[in-house]
Write a structure and sequence with these properties.
Layout lengths: L2 H15 L14 H9 L1 H4 L3 E13 L5 E6 L5 E6 L11 E10 L14 E10 L5 E3 L4 H8 L9
Parallel strand pairs: 3-5
Antiparallel strand pairs: 1-2, 1-4, 2-3, 4-5, 5-6
Length: about 160
């Protein structure tokens, strides 16, 4: 067993035993209020790590066949997510918890094909809220550990 598979197995087992809605693990810090603030001052939000609960409403293919999907927040706010992982959880109607960077994109970014907002979330951790299974981008173990311990990690500018 590799270190990466050990970490992933440990995390999956952790979430199968713990209801993340009722614990301090994996808190959220982004909702409709923060989305509206980000839209008004997008440059200030660029690079910030956000954690949120969403429902998938549209799924497309992004870079290297990774999912690029539109989501909505509980109160209806919508935005696009460029996934850095291929989890299989990104299906229309799925309820997910995401951890990722809010990011502006360039003219030639694949996001322009679907997304007219000028920004998206680059998700490096995806949790399927129905199964409590997690998928994460390799190299994000430190951020995941912080998040499991109740702290939304901070991005570096």
């Amino acid at each position: 067993m590799t270190f990466k598979s050990f970490i992933l197995t440990t995390i999956v087992l952790f979430f199968s035993m713990v209801d993340i809605k009722s614990q301090n693990a994996c808190p959220v810090n982004f909702g409709d209020k923060q989305l509206e603030s980000a839209k008004r001052d997008i440059k200030n939000w660029n690079g910030k790590i956000i954690a949120c609960d969403v429902e998938v409403i549209q799924v497309e293919k992004g870079y290297v066949d990774k999912p690029y999907y539109k989501v909505k927040l509980e109160d209806g706010g919508q935005f696009w997510v460029g996934s850095l992982v291929t989890s299989g959880y990104e299906k229309t109607g799925a309820k997910l918890r995401l951890l990722g960077y809010l990011s502006l994109f360039e003219k030639d970014d694949i996001g322009n094909k679907f997304n007219k907002d000028g920004f998206h979330i680059l998700a490096f951790v995806v949790i399927d809220l129905a199964t409590k299974k997690m998928a994460m981008h390799p190299g994000t173990e430190k951020q995941v550990e912080e998040w499991i311990n109740g702290i939304v990690p901070t991005g570096q500018k």
